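Write out this protein's structure.
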Amino acid sequence: MTAGRQVEGRRPVLEALRSGRRVAEVRLSRTARGTDEIRRVASRNGVRVRFVPREEIDRVATTRAPQGVIALVEDFSYVSVADLLARAERDAEPALIVALDGVTDPGNLGAVARCAEAAGAHGLVLPGRRSAGVGPAAGKASAGALEHLPVARVVNLQRALHDLSSSGVWVVALDAEADHLLYDLPIAAEPLCLVVGGEGRGVSRLVRERADYRVRIPMLGSVASLNAAAAAAVALFEIRRRRSPES
């Protein structure tokens, strides 16, 4: 296999090994700690582990803290929006999809992906332009969640939202200027796509116009807004709570 990308950090590398992705090699610093599980899973999967000087890890790493661990992994495979809907159907659940609008920082992308995977979302939708993509920094920030969460990269986000709507999925935009609160969202238990905007700008005008619902998170303190990942976490776990039989 010709490895197409690097995965960096203990947890992302471990999750890449657990995910079933093709891993060509794991490189471990001779001084790296907490790598016993990585070595066990790599050995079980028949993946070569190579011990190298810490300086080599730091030289080739693209993130600030690779923790002495790098894996060479096959290229990330994006899926289609239809694949995300099919995953929800296989799980026999109402679709829960997250779309990012103008999130250009890979750290924010990774943090949102971590929240989405933890909340049981069926996938993530990214625009092809003016958006971060899946790479080492996003993978590190996701703590390995991007090795498990399907991601669709689309040419046009508005078209993707239109297609989701045509498939019976409600489009819900998180918007700090919305009149209605997240907690009053009437369709939380139905198939929906939650759109999260970038830092500062929020969701675009076109997304606000396209959305079936615009909701905000009530802010009671002095800070005007939450960052993208924090807002996504609040919204996703509120939606998941509303879907619980015990709610």
